[in-house]
Design brief:
It is a single chain. The chain has 153 residues and is of the alpha+beta class. The chain has one domain: Electron Transport, Fmn-binding Protein, Chain A (Pnp Oxidase, Chain A), CATH 2.30.110.10. The protein is 25% helix and 41% strand. It is built from four helices and eight strands. The chain starts with a helix and ends with a helix.
């Protein structure tokens, strides 16, 4: 990808705050919505143990995230920028050295989430990208490695 496309992808990931999260439930796909923050290691999500997607990630760490440009009515849905990320979701233990930095990244994006960090059923997961497919518009699809995507974050 060239510098312009790289900038477009970075802007998309920074502008949007929610992603569709695809998990596996008993081998079948399940999609939900999660707020996310960006960190050096990937995508940070803060989720409740009561949520189906959390149980799914604990049972099978393979996940996918999709972040899409907001619809504006002027652009064809096929022309919207979007990125689909395939990755591995890792629950971050409460005593992990990286927890403070991941929590800070999440709270920088979602300061209103601070009270939820006091709830015992919530935990942070880091979704580490393995590959991605960025569609910059109709007919403009580009594949990336996880390492390439991490350089953007």
């Amino acid at each position: 990808m060239n510098a312009e496309l790289t900038d477009q992808l970075a802007q998309l990931l920074r502008a949007r705050t929610t992603a569709a999260l695809g998990t596996l439930r008993a081998g079948a796909p399940f999609v939900s919505m999660v707020p996310y923050a960006l960190a050096a290691g990937g995508f940070v999500v803060h989720v409740s143990a009561l949520a189906a997607h959390t149980r799914d990630m604990l049972a099978d760490a393979r996940v996918s995230l999709m972040v899409a440009q907001a619809e504006d009515g002027a652009t064809s849905p096929l022309g919207l920028m979007r990125v689909s990320v395939q990755g591995i979701a890792q629950q971050i233990p409460a005593d992990a050295p990286e927890l403070a930095a991941l929590k800070a990244a999440y709270l920088a994006r979602f300061p209103d989430a601070e009270p939820m960090f006091g709830f015992g059923d919530f935990s942070i997961f880091l979704i580490q990208p393995e590959s991605a497919r960025f569609v910059a518009g109709f007919g403009q699809a580009h594949s990336l490695t996880g390492a390439s995507l991490l350089q953007l974050l």
